[in-house]
């Protein structure tokens, strides 16, 4: 197992490598597997989420969660945030089409609800990302810091990019605070995101994302929790 692979190596492995199942993550409503990806003589661990293992949802189109995972990774890259693990869409695999995401090692006992104040402060980019992606399921365990490097990561973005307002998150720490200018700067390029996201989202979902970006550029403030609908995911962790 290579210790410090370059991002480009991981991207190529996830896109083109052969992979085999090593185990299943039993928590969660959708099928999720740990896999070994073999590419150019190296082995990389990844998380495989097949579309066939998705539980139907009343408000999201069926068999679209895997591609939303990829769209979330691409949005993070467009914003320059780099906190969604590298993710690719694969048509093959034991259970067919699904997302394949770089596996990150972290302390599962250290999560949003027991972060230090300094680590909570580092979550502003995640909050802005969730506003843009319209994340309907930001639980406390979906943000963490990598073992060794303490690099921030955010995962589980299958319930993102709905056209209707769906934001549900546990992270309301910055409600009412001004969004830093440096975080807002990439949003001015929102119209250019279409070409990157078109293979994974509908035209309506992309247009709604771009509208949210324009609204945030005008308001420039982290919003407060809505009062007319549920604003927190369940369970929270």
Notes on the structure:
With 237 residues, this protein is of the alpha+beta class. It has a single domain (7-219), classed as Transferase(Phosphotransferase), domain 1 (Orthogonal Bundle). It is 27% helix and 16% strand. The chain has seven helices and seven strands; from the N terminus they run αβββαββααββααα. The protein has helices spanning 7-16, 65-79, 117-121, 124-133, 181-184, 194-197, 203-219; strands at 18-24, 33-39, 42-50, 87-90, 98-102, 143-145, 152-154. The strands form two sheets. Strands 1-2-3-5-4 form a five-stranded antiparallel beta sheet, with helices on both faces. A hairpin with a 6-residue loop joins β6 and β7 (152-154). The longest helix has 17 residues, at 203-219. The chain starts with 6 loop residues before the first helix and ends in an 18-residue tail after the last helix.
